[in-house]
Design a protein that fits this description.
This protein has four helices and five strands. It is α+β, with helices and mostly antiparallel strands. It starts with a helix and ends with a strand.
């Protein structure tokens, strides 16, 4: 099990749903990630905390001279490392990037859910957050599928 398998799982799910990633906005991106988390177990990973967690986060970002506001919905998985007693963490998800001028006054937010059977309260918290509310009617400047792997 590695991050390529997890990324492939998300990409397959996106294709099966007929979703065009560049056209996603906040609400459909959240729905897509919640459905993937709820409906698609990753082989060899317990569908329980802390092995499989869904995280929503937003805040400002900058890279070089570019700045913006980023919303991320990510699935964080603890992947067993063969021949080791440790795990690697793979983080795969969807990020929506927006222009800073619309979101400059928002305080960063991170919230997570580990219960795939009951995500309603988690989704309600996301949909009630200031960043989601401000971004819901906006078209992101860019939408990307992200993957990260750490030890």
């Amino acid at each position: 099990m590695n991050r390529a398998v997890v990324l492939g799982s998300l990409q397959t799910f996106i294709r099966q749903r007929g979703v065009e990633v560049p056209s996603l906005t906040a609400h459909p991106a959240i729905e897509l990630m919640v459905d993937w988390f709820r409906l698609v177990p990753i082989d060899g990973i317990a569908h329980t905390a802390p092995a499989d967690t869904l995280t929503f986060r937003y805040g400002g970002w900058s890279e070089g001279c570019a700045t913006g506001f980023k919303i991320r919905m990510q699935r964080r998985l603890e992947l067993p490392e063969p021949g080791s007693t440790g795990n690697k963490t793979a983080v795969v998800g969807i990020a929506l990037l927006f222009a800073t001028d619309r979101f400059g006054d928002l305080v960063p937010l991170v919230t997570s859910s580990t219960d795939w059977r009951s995500l309603e309260a988690f989704v309600a918290a996301i949909e009630g957050s200031p960043g989601f509310l401000q971004s819901a009617a906006q078209t992101p400047s860019e939408v990307i599928v992200e993957v990260d792997e750490t030890r």
